[in-house]
Structures are given as C-alpha cells and as structure tokens.
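Tutorial handout. Part one gives the primary structure; part two gives the three-dimensional structure as tokens.
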Amino acid sequence: MLEEKRQYDSSLKFEKKGEGLVTGWTTPAPSKPVEPEARISSNVLCVRGVNGFDDNEVCKAIFITSADKSWSQISTAKPFGLTKSISNAHASPVLSISSLPGPYVFSTSMSGQLMVHDGRGQLLDKCRDHMKYAVQVVSSVTRHGKWIVATAGWDQKVHIYAPEQALAERFEPTTGSSDDETPHLEGLLRDPVHTITLPSNPESMVIVQHPDTQDTYLVLSRRDSTFLYYYCITPTSAESSSSRPSEATYSVQEMGKQNLAPHSNAWIAFTPSCLAVSPTDPTLVAVATSHLPHMKLIIVRLLFPFSSSDFVSNDDVQTQPQTQASQARAALAVQDREDKAIKLHVSTMSPQTPYSTPQVVWRPGGSGVFVNADDGVVRGIDTDTGKVVSLLRAHEVGSKVRTLYAGFESGGDGDGKGREILVSGGFDKKVFVWRVAA
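Part two.
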C-alpha cells in the first residue's frame, strides 16, 4: 500500500487542471437509470447509436451486442423497447459497431471479420482480413461524400477500406427469406486500399478532418506507446469527378505523431486506450488511458502535422548547420508545443486492472465526459475543472462497465431531439439508459 501511495503521489505532478477549457458541466445531466425491454443473456460488449449526434441528427436506434454473438436493437424513445434482434449476427462475439447515414452498419468481431448491414438488418457484404480480434471499426465520409472505413485488429494491423457507396445505395432490399450468411452485395467492401502494420496492437482510432485543408486523417494510438499517430488519407484519382466509385483510389501516408507525455521520464507512462472526438470541437479529443490503478483522463488538442509543402527544402536545411545544441532546442520546442496542447490531465479515480477496457464518451453538448470503471460505477467528469461531478450507480457492485454511448433520445419538439441520454453496458449482463430526471 505504501508503494502504491508513493506512485500515486509522484503521478500528481504530471496532472494538469483545466483552465476555462469549455463551458463546464451543465445541468440537468443524465442520472435516472431505465432498463430497456431487451433480453440479454451474456456480457454486453458494445452499445452504439445509429445516426446519433455525430451526424447532427437525433439517434434513431441503439445497437447492443453481447458475447453470445447476437445483436439487439432498441428504440430511442421511452420505454426503449426492443425493435429487432439478430441472433448469430457474426460467427463470434461482436466487439465494435459504426454507422453511416442510410443507415449502414459496419461491425467487427473476435474472429477478425468485418460485416456491413443495411437498416433492415440484411447482410450486404463481409470480409476477414484480420487474423485476430478486430477490436474496433470507425467510418466517415470524405469532403466529397465518399465512404472511408477503418478496422483495427490485434494482429498489429489497421485496414482502410473505400466501399463502393453507389452499389449500396442502389441496392433494393428483398422481402423474401434468404440465407443470412450469404451477402447480397459481394464485393461491396473490396480489398483494403491500404494496410498499416504496427509494432504493437492498435488500441483506438478516430477519423477526423483537418480544420484548414479538410483532408481526411486517421488518428490512432497503440499499445505501449504514449503517442498519437497521424495518417493522411488522400485520393490519388479524381474522387469528386469519378462517375464510378471503383475508379477512386487512395493513398495513406504517415504524417507525424504527437506525444501525450512530452516531459515524462518514464519509458511508458500509460497507453491511450480510447479516443473520443468532441462533438462541438473536432480538434479536441478525450483520451481514456490504461493507467493503473486508476484511469487517467487527458483532454488534448490535436496537433495536425504540417503538409509536405510546408516543409523547408533540403537546400535550406544544408545552409543551416545542425549542431547538438540546435537539435536539443528543436526537441524542447516540440515538447513545449505538445505540453501546451494538453488541456486537462487528471485522475478519474475509476479503478482499473491490466485487463480493463477504458472507455470515454462526450456529452452531446461537449460540457463533460463519462468514463467507465471496473467497480460498476459510471463517472461524469467536468472538463473545465477535472473534477468527478457525477456518480451513476445501477450496475452490480464490482462488475465491469464495458461500454458507453451518449446522445439524445427521440421524441423532442422542433428538431426531434429529446432529452440527453447515456447508455451503459457491462459484464453484469445489463444495459441501462440514463435519462435526465424529470
């Protein structure tokens, strides 16, 4: 206990409190748990909303995946009833889900398989390019409206796909019975346009747009590294003018990295295990780390690397001789820039073990975040002060809260947005929809 206390005291000097980062924790906030009318017989692995606030739309449905390979789809209107259930959606437990407007649902599983379904639950295409767990799938659209999908697996690889969007949009769903294991649109996903091979397993990734150039970037973290790695996805053909989506090709180039512990003397201080982009500021990311014994939360500004046109030429470099002192000053300048980008670095007091899966989600208004824990409690963090301002208790004491999702329930006036909700799922085989108390 004394050694743990010493480690905790030494880590405090690296903490950084927020200084007017956003508006602070707003109220009312989700606090009342409602258990949806869905039968769940095994551990909950993932909860995700379809067409949520990330797409500036009210959430239309919530998917729940569990270890028995099944999906449950529930309504986003109280009492959150079951609308659809798909047994054996994959050949193994489904670990991650992402959606694009349509809706089209992309999911990955423990077997390394990627599947895409339409809004009716019909299988459009599938592939298996990962040899081990496909732990995450993310999807987005480029500035010309083309689909980009990326999957991360524990085979130390990240695959990037450019599915044939027009093929999916022209598909007319069938009404008759068919073999659920046979894709209706084989070849929709195509082969990966690029594969990133890493020295360790990828942990988390997000797809963001450069605020100035609008280029598409894949930002990822990997195990045993405190860095964020930037990959620029650029079209190598006339993406916007191509009449056939299959003619559009892409190049993926590693542009740089950003250290989340620039002044740390430790070799590996933590691992960024979950990245979440702010819904109000796409250059701001919340990072849940695998720090022991309690999760560290980092709010950081993305430092997009300079484009190749911004680099100085080789002739200019040759005219400026590099000395050991100049190299040290340049390295220190980079560290100072990375340190200034960290807006918040605090302990959430959420207990973790080496086998935990840290999760963080933003509140829809960007005024705070929720994090999971292994003690059955969901904690709300004020991103202005870094304080734990909300403790949500409904899961069994001591059980792992595995997954979180935040958005809006349906049934509101005007834009259709109702109250703010938080969805949590855990290893107690339960899902709770946290609503704002009336």
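Part three, for discussion. Residues 123 and 182 are 7 Å apart (CA to CA). The helical segments are 2-11, 165-169, 314-319, 324-341.
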